[in-house]
Hints:
The structure is a homodimer. By secondary structure, chain A is mostly helical. Chain A is 64% helix and 3% strand. The two termini of chain A are 44 Å apart.
Amino acid sequence: MTADSFPASPAWTALLARVHEINDLEKAAAVLTWDRDVNMPPGGLDGRIQQMTTLSRLIHTSFTSDDMGALIEAAAADSDGAAYDTDGAALVRTLRRSYADARKLPTEYVMRRTAVSAGARGVWEKARAANDFDRFRPWLEQVIGLAQEAASLYGYEDEPYDALLDKYETDAKTADVRALFRALREALVPLRQAIVECGRKVDDRLLRQDYPIDGQQAFARYIAVAAGYDLERGHIGTVVHPFSISFGQGDVRITTRWYPGFLSPSVFGTLHESGHAIYEQGTHPSLARTPLARGASMGLHESQSRLFENLVGRSRPFWQAHFPKLQSIFPAQLGAHSAEDFYAAVNKVEPSLIRVEADELTYNLHIILRFELEQAMLSGALRAGELPAAWKEGMQTLLGVTPVHDREGCLQDVHWSSPSFGYFPTYALGNLYSAQIFESALAQEPEVGTELAAGRTGALVAWLREHLHRHGKKYTPAELAVRVTGKPLGHEAFVRYVTGKFADLYGLS
Amino acid sequence: MTADSFPASPAWTALLARVHEINDLEKAAAVLTWDRDVNMPPGGLDGRIQQMTTLSRLIHTSFTSDDMGALIEAAAADSDGAAYDTDGAALVRTLRRSYADARKLPTEYVMRRTAVSAGARGVWEKARAANDFDRFRPWLEQVIGLAQEAASLYGYEDEPYDALLDKYETDAKTADVRALFRALREALVPLRQAIVECGRKVDDRLLRQDYPIDGQQAFARYIAVAAGYDLERGHIGTVVHPFSISFGQGDVRITTRWYPGFLSPSVFGTLHESGHAIYEQGTHPSLARTPLARGASMGLHESQSRLFENLVGRSRPFWQAHFPKLQSIFPAQLGAHSAEDFYAAVNKVEPSLIRVEADELTYNLHIILRFELEQAMLSGALRAGELPAAWKEGMQTLLGVTPVHDREGCLQDVHWSSPSFGYFPTYALGNLYSAQIFESALAQEPEVGTELAAGRTGALVAWLREHLHRHGKKYTPAELAVRVTGKPLGHEAFVRYVTGKFADLYGLS
């Protein structure tokens, strides 16, 4: 695990001083965000908004100044000819790109986007609770308008959605994602149908018993460490909507929610967020305090969370190894069950209405629906008022179920209360990446499979660190796919994985 | 409860925009401090030091710029002739003073102080745990050096310690504090001696039983609210060394520690920090996001914590009202005891080694020791390596006890991990203020005493809010002493209070 570091010339020292300053302000804002969600009392909100607005304004002003552009170009000139793989060349690439992007958005637009998103978020929460889409509709119209404006401001070559997708998955093209998702859909829909029709039922009632929260917390810590999350450089907080967040390589936190009557959210939420955190903890120290010290894209970030949540965390050997610990914490609830019972329960396939509760197989179909609807809204083909009907139709086609209420339909996700079109597809890209990366790890390093068969992840984490994590954001996702797995991202590994797993579980031929 | 607010002219708008920005950065830094002590994993320290150093540099640069001076003077000119009591005049006074002080400290010094303090803090924690003064000694040397530098940079008329004391207790003079403390010592040492010699023993074993932490936490929340702390605008965190901190009037937090075998630290620590928080929660909203929205001085701040911890929280009627609740949480531990047993136990006088566990009477002797040692370290008369011996000698003289271990001696307090010399004496000043203010409240508003006799604090909190809290930092401590109590700060009220209380408890004539 070697890495170079940045040049030491005056131009580089000046650039890095600015980069470090902006990084520190961003991390301070991240601490304020985490604290808001984990600890802040209700009365603190107004003051917190003021503090976060002030930090954002200072960061934006500093990063988009002419001065910043001059610092980047002076350092670039100073290290002209540095190899593509060096930290310096990668930082220049990343800064040039994000500087150009940030300067494309006028302050007026950014302020309007912030105001509309804040308003839409509040209305969305109320509209969802009241199952009242019409209340949200005028805000969704504004959000669509903002997304269309952003696509124009950023610019694009082929289609508007490219301009937005690029912000979450650098250089990704909508046409490529569309082709990947089409192939995925063609494999998953028949598999989903075969499972529904095979008649075999998995009993998952053991997951829905009385599980006291202190026991869940103890097991979450155990299983996070078992996955490879370093708690000396981490912390598990409690929130309503779980997330992971990094304040630097030495302090990467996750959050979990605890349902006293349902075990899955805390166990698999913890494994999911641990995967994100393991990625951030593994970036190379030479990248610290720069925008390279983070995951390469949303899709690759999600690949690591899904890898630990699903490919490791919903595997048979993992629970053969760790179920006894869970049993020892909850003897009354699980004493009469086997690891195999638990493995089957946590892998039950059932087409359902809610994305975040979906199984591994049908989850991607939820994403494909949102990807298609976003493109239609962005192009103007689908108007805000037409969303509920289009949603129901899409769910029936893709999943064979239709929501009665919009709160279980197009109002279920927070994402469209801001113009973050392009984010949803990265969830499914993450699933595809996770399977392709996992196959490579098993093929390249035999010790990975040997250890996983005993429920241990040390060799896997080491392999991921060496091949993926340490690079941070030095490369684009497409570059990393080839670098890590030897080929571009495809749907094949994921389809092989789910077909093998669920054919076995459901006795399909 | 009325207050004016700031002028709305362009000059004032410009000044307030800057003041708000600096306030927001300071509050962000405060969140980072709180998080460091409450949540941060060990690996986060390096990154956190960088973030806090960057914030303090930006704050210092912005606040000490020529520009800032021009903003202050333009606003001052714009509201020339405004009455002394107006918010505007008070803000100009405060800003002029702190601007002049801050300009005396070079940015390089401030950054060095932040970095050394952050490092020393971590080492102090480890050194205390390991009872290893030598590990902390080189950091203490740096801290002393920083304090000496600060005294020179600020400048002083009479003696170096004045320059530092003034930062915690505006306009206070070391000579005056020395005289107050001499009078106090002359009253307290004989009283302490009389109690030791009277032969009456108070049994406080009931405080040292097995008290499960979840019960302590439940009672802490109960008693904090009973004291008057608003938890809708507050939060109780867990730390090693408790403190309170404000992120704005709507989010004022306290921290507590929980000892499973000793009840007092959580109960009286919570009451103490609640007193600080009640003060901050009571500043007038018109002062929000300015340096006036805080306590007037450390001494006055401590007066409020000690008032709720001791004058209210160790009073007989308070426990007659609230002991049943404590009994209901800990029936096995306290079912056989009376409120009077508890009242006596929590007021036991016993010369001891640890300041924060000291009784009301001997507490001030701990402070007098630190006040004397700080002056000696500042003058160079006492070197870092000589501290442990000087500490032991002073303890023997003032309290008649000598620590065996430095962790119960000179390593016990966090304060000397930063150059905050001048802070310690404000604890004893706070005790003197608390008694003098409490006497005034009882004398001026009969409802205060009537309510307290039933364990209720509403009238007291309202009186304090009206006479002290709402003013925030608009006046100096000396001005407030006269405004609130009609006379300058003296030792007499405190001596009357402890003499009366302990003569009764120990049957002294």
